[in-house]
Design a protein that fits this description.
Elements lengths: L38 H31 L5 H28 L8 H7 L14 H29 L2 H24 L2
Helix pairs in contact: 1-2, 1-3, 1-4, 2-5, 4-5
């Protein structure tokens, strides 16, 4: 009886098994989003960021309005201060909207959406005799509202493991807390 020869052992490694299926492709063939954050968590963070964007845009618009319309003995110092604040805020708006898009969702961009999403109430115009103190008061309240919204988004993003959003909200908190402090100091 002849001995059967055993097949030589293969040294080739088997193909690795995928731990999870690839993200589903969209109808247009673009790949789905797989950044390590579930779709539900990305949606929650993007929703929070949409509210934050609405608050930030409302505050930006109010700050720019007051820059244009400040009068009286505080004109020069507040005109310059407001310009610095609204210029910084304008740049940040783009970063916020782009983060929403990176998470896979549409960023709000109309006045109607911002009014619906913002926690900052629309206040009546200040008229021709606007007092600089009222402008500053409204901007303190607005910066503090933005801070409260940022803290909510930060908590949601942290729970989801979304470090870029946590970082963005931390940066925005630093700016808006400082702005609120500087403005509040003018009223003390």
């Amino acid at each position: 009886m002849a001995k059967k020869k055993s097949a030589p052992k293969s040294t080739a490694k088997p193909a690795p098994k995928a731990d999870k299926p690839l993200p589903t492709a969209h109808a247009d063939g673009a790949p789905g989003i797989d950044i390590g954050i579930s779709t539900g968590d990305r949606r929650k963070v993007a929703d929070g960021l949409s509210h934050f964007l609405a608050d930030a845009y409302t505050l930006y618009l109010k700050t720019h309005n007051f820059h244009w319309n400040i009068t009286g003995p505080m004109f020069n110092s507040l005109h310059v201060m407001f310009e610095g604040q609204y210029t910084e805020q304008w740049t940040a708006l783009d970063e916020i909207a782009e983060r929403i898009r990176a998470l896979g969702f549409k960023a709000p961009g109309s006045y109607a959406e911002f009014v619906r999403l913002s926690s900052i109430p629309e206040e009546p115009g200040l008229g021709d005799s606007a007092d600089w103190r009222e402008m500053v008061r409204q901007l303190v309240v607005g910066n503090e509202a933005v801070c409260r919204t940022a803290r909510k988004v930060l908590a949601t993003a942290d729970k989801a493991g979304d470090d870029p959003t946590v970082d963005l909200m931390t940066q925005r908190l630093n700016i808006h807390e400082k702005n609120a402090w500087m403005l509040r100091s003018l009223l003390q």
